[in-house]
Amino acid sequence: MGLVTCAEILASAEAGGYAVGAFNCNNMEIVQAIIRAAEAERSPVIIQASQGAIKYAGMGYIVALIREAAASASVPVAMHLDHGTDFQQVMLCIRNGFTSVMIDGSHHPLSENIDITKRVVEVAHAVGVSVEGELGRIRGVEDEVRVSEREAFFTDPEEARIFVRETGVDALAPSIGTAHGRYRGKPELDFDRLAQIRKLTGVPLVLHGSSGVPGEDIRRAISLGVRKVNIDTDIREAFVAEVRRRLEADPSEIDPRRILGPAREKACQVIREKIRLFGSAGKA
Ligand code: G3H
Ligand code: 13P
Ligand code: ZN
Asked: Cofactor: bound how, per the entry note (predicted)?
């Protein structure tokens, strides 16, 4: 079917009231796990690569892998840059065929975040690429944040309204209590804030740090306007746990295919479960 933009995928999700998984990849096996899961569930899918993933695999390799996944699949696939922080890097991704980019200016003050996001939107939209912005800081679980300071990182709904109006982003990633990586305790999501942000911006919202968030919370977030759900850690864990298990089961194994093949299958199972949870199964 080939590549489509995130904006197209999210417009259908908006109309259908479901969300689409955006799954992080670093290598061929994970790209294959994602596309096999999407095909098996007849679901649109967003395959995303972070700057770290691009550095690890190489721009040419990662683009070729995702392009091949899209070309050989019969479901809509978007190739998305996850957490682009640098204008040049985002431009390079657009030039190399990404159909959607995230510009994460959340570490800047509001006006600078608006400036850099607006510059990206101007170029990206001119060439038919969609843009996700981030406002408020989405933490890593490793960042020590005192409870009293927790909400200082959250997105202010009024600022979100201004940010979306000024930048013209296609989707917004707000900070409402999720964090990247494995949670130590139960994540506490601020659903009222999420509802308010949705009401004031009207754009599809993106939930980052979604690994380890209970299914009922994910469903509630989707009912309040989340249309893209980012998953990395749950895939990494399933993949690496199987690699470990295979190596322990047979320390003399030297064929990488016998180690990575089963790991790919475990990752695929996790992704299929997520797709069903998000409500996008059968929508392609
Ligand atoms: O949000 C971050 C993603 O999990 C990607 O992580 O920068 O280690 O590739 P990474
Ligand atoms: P997790 O690794 O917590 O699933 O977060 C993924 C993410 O938000 C990628 O942008
Ligand atoms: Zn993220």
From this structure: Binds 2 Zn(2+) ions per subunit. One is catalytic and the other provides a structural contribution.
